[in-house]
Every structure is written in structure tokens, then in C-alpha cells.
């Protein structure tokens, strides 16, 4: 291991990187050691940074992304070259897709050898490969440029639309030495990394005018609204305007899901019926069937082509990406929402009661129907009876963070488990990606200090399952619930050839995921009833010990692809 410096008067690349991160308020690194960054991880720890070491870089990267979403500071993921870098790259691309700020820092081989393709250890032109998959990519070749490199990476990650940044640090950089005072002077403390962006007055007026004439207005909150941490203003806008709202999955809890203006239980009614839709930090992508698909009533619906949109987003090019946006409001959500509030003035007329009553009626009916389903206690346990338990737990422990992935395990949890506070739900996001579970759980517990409950499909859990060792190693208060239905979607599929291999979606029957947690010193629970599940969760929340509950779910209970069956090519073809 390299010691700090030969004399007090010199510093080196290792320390300049760490000093630059610390100077900018970064206190945690998620990563996986190896050449050329092993010493960097040791020195980081020695210098007082928290280093969370993973078993696979993808999960370290996912942890960095979740940390970025929760804190508005870029999460840092540190990897070795070529294969480690590539393992981290999926997380970097996913973070960029979701607008989460993170920086993937990878050690790399020497330029002279890489550029002549002479076959260095783990040789790869990482910068070129990262570039199209992230928001910005930089390489630092000289120690005196480390300060600038880190500053540019931080600004790129958090300013404007947040995203992933790649920072390439060749091995030779770390050992470079320079005068300590000059080194210190070369570092940059980034001032106002994510500047407010104030919307133009005429754009605000246009939006207010459109909203004023609305008979059936609707607000859609996306995860950008959760990220923005403008919770009080958003709540004030919704309550003052009286407009019903729908939260996208990671926007659940900005206002409590039990809020009387939530139209979540009447989603399929309000989307096609609304005349003016206000998008706040939500894109009209596939998750909203591009503003025109089945979710909105399809082309035959009477509202087709007549709906008007106001879109609040920090990215000026987001408007018109799928449908015409009548009143784009470009700026940060905090500034835009407070400008709207100010322009609405006193005496704002609430939406017509015909609209709000129609929504309330449907909402109460659907909630009552769901309550009936949740009250059933079938044997074997199904998604509903298991999630009724999780729903009660979150009602009693609203500060707990929920991580959620799978297909049925995702869709049922999203609709059944209410969130009561902002930024308490982390999930598969824009891509619907599997594998975020343990990385997000580790980050959520490390950066917030809160208890975490991860509701995982058994397939979804498998993508990051080895990180239960990481959870045990750092003794994190994470309770993983594996919704075990013996496979992808359900455990009952059959091999259509009649051969001896099981179907591609089917796993080993009655697998004991709980034993995986026990293998590393955590608590394993085998639960076949809601009562056993409840007891397991209660004990986990009380003790804070790493816990994995293998919840045995009826293997016939799920549906193909959960709620997105319509995206299956075979399903589409049949239509
Ligand atoms: P969801 O999946 O929940 O619908 P999306 O990820 O599609 O949400 O949309 C998030 C949007 O929020 C992106 O278009 C992004 O540009 C925007 N955004 C993120 N942070 C801010 C912010 N601070 N101010 C304004 N817009 C933001
Ligand atoms: N690989 C990656 C990285 N992301 C994906 N989304 C998929 C594969 C495809 N996929 C889904 O979209 S959901 C899912 C896969 C493999 C797993 C569903 O099974 P599960 O959930 O056990 O997690 P349920 O509760 O059985 O439906
Ligand atoms: Mg499953």
C-alpha cells in the first residue's frame, strides 16, 4: 500500500482524488477493489470516507444511483478496469435513463498501450464505450487536472436533468506526485452545482391560463418531482388548486397515498377523461403509454387529441416528445411550482364537483373492492394476502424505505402498499430493470439510516442475491422478502417439447432463500402464512438485523409479465 507521501510537501493522484471528493461533500464510495484502485479504496477508508464494498460492480453502481436519487449528491461507484467497468456500466446507463445523478469512476489501463491495442491487462477503451451510455464522460491524465475532472463530473451529474457521468482514471495517474500546496490549490469546491432554473413569466402565465379553463384537470407526479425535494410546494399546489393527482410509482408518498385528492384508485378513469393534464417531473414514455395508448382510452376515446398538457420539466427538449405540449414550463420543479402557486393568486376556483365527485365515487368503489380481496386468507398464501401484511407494516412504520422489483411482485406491491412520505419507494424505474434490489437496499439504509424492506420477486432477487453477504457484512437493517412463487411470473409453466428440462420460467421448487441469509450470519425466516410473515417483519424491524423472509406464494397466483402482458410480442400478434 502506498503511504500518504514521502514528505509533507508532496501529494499524489490517489489523495488528490479523495481530497477533491471530500471537498465536495462526498462521504461514501460504493465499489469493488482490484488493480488499479485497491489502494484508493484503502486510502479512502483511512481518510474517513465510508467505503461500501460489494460482490459485483452492478450492485455498487445501483447503490450509487439510489444514493444520488435520495440525496441530490452524485453517488460514487468505483470499479477496476474493463470487466469491472462493464459490470458497473449497466448501472450507469440505468441511472442516466432514470435521471439519477451518479459518477462511475473506473481505473483504466495505460493510454499508450490501449490506443495501440497492444494487449494490456484488462485493456479497453473505456471512455469511448461509456460515452453513448451516460450524460457525460471525462478522462484525467495529469494529477493537476484531478480537481477540474471531479468538478466537471459533479456538475454534469446534478445540473439540469440529472444523470450518470463516467470518469476515467488511468492507473498511472494515481502514482503521479505533485507539490502539496499546488495540489490543494488545484482542487475545486463546486459552487451551486445544480443551479435553480427559474421559469419565464410568460410560460407561467400560459400554464395558469390553460389551467384556469380546465373542467377536468389532473396532476401527474413523477419521480422527478420526488427527486426535486419540493415536497411542501407540491403539496400546496395540489391542495390549493383542489386538482386530483396521480403519482407514478416512485412519486408515491410525496403526498400520502391516502390523501383525499389521490386519484390512484381511479387511474383508468381519470387518464382518458382529463381535459388538462399537468405533468410534474414525469415523462410521457411507455409507462404512460406515450400519452395516447390504451391507458388513455385509445384512439376511439372521445378525449383523443383534445387533451391539453402542461409539462414542468428541467429539460427543455422533453416537451413534444410524444404528444404536443400546450404549455411547457421549463425550470426546476421547486421554482416552477412556486411560480405557478404565486400566479394562481387568491380565490382560485377549485375544479367542478362533477369531476371530483366522479373520481371519489370510483375511488371508494375500487378501494372497497380491493379491501375485500385483501381480507381473504387463502392457503397457500397469495400476493394479496402477503402484501396486505406489508401494507399494514408501512402504515405503522412510514419512515421505512421500500425497495421493490419483480413482475407480479412489483405490480401488486405498487398498487397495494401505500406510501406516506416522499422518497420512500425505490423500484425498477424507467427500464423496468431487474437487479436493483440489493444495491438500492444497501444505499437506502447507508445514506438514510432508516430500516429498509425489499419486496422481491424470486427471479428479481436472484440478480443481486449474493449481496446479502454485503448486507450482513455491514450489518444493515435490511429485511428482504422474497415472494417465492417458484419462478418468473409463476411456477407452473411446462416444457412444451415434453422433454425433461423444466420450462424457461420455472425454478427449483420450494427453494430456501432464507438459508442464504443464514449462511452469512443474518436471520432467515420461512413464512407460509400472513401471520408468520408479519412476525418475521416485526422482528426484523425491531432488531434491525439483516433478515430474509422466504414468503411462500401460491405458484399459480401470478400472471404472465404482471401488468405489462400487452407488451409481449406474442400477445400483440394475437390482437
Ligand atoms: P416517472 O418514471 O416517475 O414518470 P420520469 O423519470 O419519466 O418519471 O421523469 C422524470 C423527469 O423529471 C425527467 O424528465 C427529468 O428531466 C425531470 N426532472 C428531474 N429532476 C428535476 C428537477 N429538479 N426539476 C425539474 N425536472 C426534473
Ligand atoms: N433482465 C433484466 C435485467 N430485466 C428484466 N426486466 C428482465 C430480464 C425480464 N423480466 C421482467 O421484466 S420481470 C422478470 C424478468 C426476468 C422476473 C419476474 O419474476 P419474479 O416476479 O419472480 O421476479 P413474479 O412475482 O414471479 O412475477
Ligand atoms: Mg416469481
Blueprint of the fold:
Blueprint: E1 10-12, H1 13-23, E2 28-31, H2 38-46, E3 50-53, H3 57-71, E4 75-79, H4 82-98, E5 102-108, H5 111-115, H6 126-130, E6 136-139, H7 146-158, E7 164-170, H8 171-175, E8 177-179, H9 180-186, H10 201-212, E9 217-221, H11 223-227, H12 231-241, E10 245-247, H13 267-273, E11 276-280, E12 308-313, E13 327-330, H14 333-344, H15 353-375, H16 383-396, E14 401-405, H17 408-416, E15 425-427, H18 437-448, E16 452-457, H19 458-464, H20 468-473, E17 478-484, H21 513-519, E18 523-527, H22 530-543, E19 547-552, H23 569-574
Parallel strand pairs: 2-3, 2-4, 4-5, 5-7, 6-7, 9-10, 9-11, 11-12, 12-13, 14-15, 14-16, 16-17, 17-19, 18-19
Antiparallel strand pairs: 1-8
The site of ligand TZD has 18 residues, from helix 17 and helix 19.
In words, what does this structure look like?
- The chain has 575 residues and is α/β, with parallel strands linked by helices.
- It folds into 3 domains: 10-186, Rossmann fold; 201-361, 3-Layer(aba) Sandwich (Rossmann fold); 376-574, Thiamin diphosphate (ThDP)-binding fold, Pyr/PP domains (Rossmann fold, 3-Layer(aba) Sandwich).
- 40% of the residues lie in helices and 16% in strands.
- The chain has a 6-stranded parallel sheet, with helices on both faces. A 6-stranded parallel sheet has the order 15-14-16-17-19-18, with helices on both faces.
- β4 (75-79), α4 (82-98) and β5 form a beta-alpha-beta unit.
- The model has no long low-confidence stretch (mean pLDDT 95).
- The site of magnesium ion has 6 residues, from α19.
- Residues 457-459, 485, 487-488 line the site of magnesium ion.
Amino acid at each position: 500500500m502506498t503511504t500518504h507521501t514521502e514528505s509533507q510537501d508532496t501529494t499524489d493522484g490517489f489523495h488528490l482524488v479523495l481530497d477533491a471528493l471530500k471537498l465536495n461533500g462526498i462521504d461514501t464510495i460504493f465499489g469493488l477493489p482490484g488493480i488499479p484502485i485497491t489502494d484508493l479504496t484503502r486510502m479512502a477508508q483511512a481518510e474517513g470516507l465510508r467505503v461500501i464494498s460489494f460482490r459485483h460492480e452492478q450492485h455498487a453502481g445501483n447503490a450509487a444511483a439510489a444514493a444520488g436519487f435520495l440525496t441530490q449528491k452524485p453517488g460514487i461507484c468505483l470499479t477496476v478496469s474493463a470487466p469491472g467497468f462493464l459490470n458497473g456500466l449497466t448501472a450507469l446507463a440505468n441511472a442516466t435513463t432514470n435521471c439519477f445523478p451518479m459518477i462511475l469512476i473506473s481505473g483504466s489501463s495505460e493510454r499508450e498501450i490501449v490506443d495501440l491495442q497492444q494487449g494490456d491487462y484488462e485493456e479497453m477503451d473505456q471512455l469511448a464505450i461509456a460515452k453513448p451510455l451516460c450524460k457525460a464522460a471525462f478522462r484525467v491524465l495529469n494529477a493537476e487536472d484531478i480537481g477540474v475532472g471531479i468538478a466537471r463530473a459533479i456538475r454534469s451529474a446534478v445540473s439540469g436533468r440529472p444523470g450518470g457521468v463516467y470518469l476515467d482514471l488511468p492507473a498511472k495517474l494515481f502514482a503521479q506526485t505533485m507539490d502539496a500546496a499546488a495540489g490543494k490549490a488545484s482542487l475545486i469546491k463546486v459552487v451551486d452545482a445544480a443551479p435553480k432554473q427559474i421559469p419565464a413569466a410568460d410560460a407561467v402565465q400560459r400554464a395558469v391560463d390553460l389551467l384556469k379553463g380546465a373542467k377536468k384537470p389532473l396532476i401527474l407526479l413523477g419521480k422527478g418531482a420526488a427527486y426535486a425535494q419540493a415536497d411542501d410546494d407540491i403539496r400546496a399546489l395540489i391542495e390549493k388548486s383542489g386538482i386530483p393527482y396521480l403519482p407514478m410509482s416512485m412519486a408515491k408518498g410525496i403526498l400520502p397515498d391516502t390523501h383525499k385528492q389521490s386519484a390512484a384508485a381511479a387511474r383508468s378513469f381519470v387518464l382518458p377523461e382529463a381535459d388538462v393534464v399537468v405533468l410534474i417531473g414525469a415523462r410521457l414514455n411507455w409507462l404512460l403509454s406515450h400519452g395516447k395508448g390504451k391507458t388513455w382510452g385509445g384512439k376511439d376515446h372521445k378525449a383523443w387529441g383534445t387533451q391539453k398538457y402542461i409539462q414542468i420539466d428541467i429539460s427543455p427538449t422533453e416537451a413534444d416528445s410524444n404528444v404536443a405540449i400546450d404549455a411547457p414550463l421549463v425550470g426546476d420543479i421547486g421554482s416552477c411550482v412556486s411560480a405557478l402557486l404565486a400566479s394562481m393568486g387568491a380565490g382560485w376556483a377549485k375544479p367542478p364537483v362533477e369531476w371530483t365527485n366522479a373520481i371519489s365515487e370510483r375511488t371508494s368503489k375500487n378501494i372497497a373492492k380491493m379491501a375485500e380481496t385483501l381480507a381473504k386468507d387463502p392457503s397457500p398464501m397469495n400476493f394479496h394476502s402477503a402484501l396486505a401484511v406489508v401494507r399494514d407494516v408501512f402504515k405503522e412504520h412510514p419512515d421505512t424505505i421500500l425497495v421493490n422489483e419483480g413482475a407480479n411482485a412489483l405490480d401488486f406491491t405498487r398498487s397495494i402498499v401505500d406510501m406516506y412520505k416522499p422518497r420512500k419507494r425505490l423500484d425498477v424505474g424507467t427500464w423496468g430493470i431487474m437487479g436493483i434490489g440489493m444495491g438500492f437496499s444497501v444505499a437506502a439504509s447507508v445514506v438514510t439510516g432508516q430500516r429498509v424492506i425489499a419486496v422481491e420477486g424470486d427471479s428479481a432477487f436472484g440478480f443481486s442475491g449474493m449481496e446479502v453477504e454485503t448486507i450482513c457484512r455491514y450489518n444493515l437493517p435490511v429485511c428482504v422478502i422474497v415472494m417465492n412463487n417458484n419462478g418468473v411470473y409463476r411456477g407452473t409453466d411446462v416444457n412444451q417439447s415434453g422433454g425433461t428440462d423444466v420450462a424457461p420460467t420455472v425454478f427449483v421448487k420450494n427453494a430456501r432463500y432464507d438459508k442464504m441469509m443464514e449462511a452469512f450470519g443474518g436471520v432467515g425466516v420461512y413464512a407460509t402464512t400472513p401471520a408468520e410473515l408479519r412476525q418475521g417483519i416485526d422482528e426484523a424491524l425491531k432488531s434491525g438485523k439483516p433478515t430474509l423472509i422466504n414468503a411462500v406464494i401460491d405458484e399459480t397466483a401470478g400472471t404472465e409479465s404482471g401488468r405489462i402482458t400487452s407488451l409481449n410480442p406474442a400477445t400483440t400478434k394475437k390482437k
